[in-house]
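During the no-cost extension, the postdoctoral fellow (Dr. R.K.) reprocessed legacy sequence entries with the updated structure-token encoder. One reprocessed record is reproduced below for audit purposes.
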Amino acid sequence: MQTNRYILLYICTAVLSSLFLAGCNSNTAYNHYEHTPVAGWERNDTLFFDAGPIISSGQYVEEVGLRINGEYPFTGLNLVVEQTIEPSHERHSDTLCCSLISEHGVAKGRGISNYQYIFHLTTLKLEQGDKLRVAVRHDMKREILPGIADIGVRLTRME
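Re-encoded structure tokens follow.
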């Protein structure tokens, strides 16, 4: 009977240790969201994200996250995303065209009243010690956009 307890304790410890170590093995180097003003996101309100220093050299996938609610008036969103890699001062600029609502009026994001979207932006080669500064602003005809709650940037190292 005593032996069975030790075996059960050993198995539980092994399982919990495996789950803990698996959680620490993430390739996500950076994941952060910034809130936009409740009154609406103005075209000149650029959001900044500072990732780094990078721990391991390699290829990194850069994604932009977006959270909207029912007040957002359009089916899409155009974002201008500018990246600067330091210390090399290498600059990249991309326009991301985000399709949010299908032609049938159904949100493509995940959620019920608030919707979350993740859009692939680019793949960057980063060296150990590099820092990445990302600036995001909208490029829509309307000056102030209601209904956008958060914008985020995620950087994940490719295996």
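The mean pLDDT is 86. Helices lie at 2-23. The remaining legacy entries will be reprocessed before the final report is submitted.
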